[in-house]
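ok trying again, last paste got cut off:
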Amino acid sequence: MIKFECASKFYGDVAAISQLDLDIQPGELVALIGPSGSGKSTALKMVNRMVELDHGRILFKNQDITRFNLQDLRRRMGYAIQSVGLFPHRTVAHNIATVPRLLGWEADRVRARVTELMNMLSMDPDHYAGRYPHQLSGGQQQRVGVARALAADPDVLLMDEPFGALDPVTRAALQRALKAIHRATGKTILFVTHDLDEALLLASRIVLLNNGRLVQVGTPLELLQQPANDFVADFLGRADLGLKQLSLQPVAHYLKPLAGPAPAYVIPSTATAREAISCMAEHHVSSLRVADANGNIIGQVGAPDLLANNHV
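nice, full thing came through this time. structure:
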């Protein structure tokens, strides 16, 4: 879907991005992470030509991005940023409808799309469609920004630290919403974040940059279990690698048949191993029963297995 081929961007003599090779497949959610100044936002903006590359090339759907009409390219790529950038004198519905209207969609189609996206992002259209940005909370404004970026059904969604300015509770809710959107739509998403836990939670693959260069790329578990060098291990938090692995592993991965007296407490099979450890600590137990989506008990998990397998 998106392919960087030896892509570089310089500001004077300083390389913001240096010889980046990266292939992003359709349907992936790829997180770009790295220290401040690592080039992650520059790499994202090179995709829709908000920043023009100096060397190499970037392909979008097997075509060099410089061959696209610039406006057409950007309309095929939804863009959501931290500052949201909603039009203050337009209603929520009109903000979301911006690109579809520019593309000449019929009014009924626009209304249907706005309603669909607002429902997808848990914003009741009857309650919020006629409101203005100043009447919304920060989290609600960000939801509208994401809806606007998705409105014209773009091939790719580019997100530049979209949740960075939000409080932890609102941020967690929007992370869950984005995961649900990704599952429901299968969109290709390129996501910049400075928050490692956010990248681990959301990404199907993580790209770690430093000083404009690619250091390592892989699934969250690959980076945690097989850091390429000391920089990767230190950036990921060497002392917390085991706990971070627990946050990625589903508790069902450690499921065993019930044996002996049944544990007193139950946890859903969709919970993470880290959540299971927290539940055990809260109730002062060392094992839990595990229930499926229908509430049926399907086995149990024990603390020794969870901790031993993740070297915590």
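cool. Residues 168-185 form the longest helix (18 residues). Residues 123 and 275 are 28 Å apart (CA to CA).
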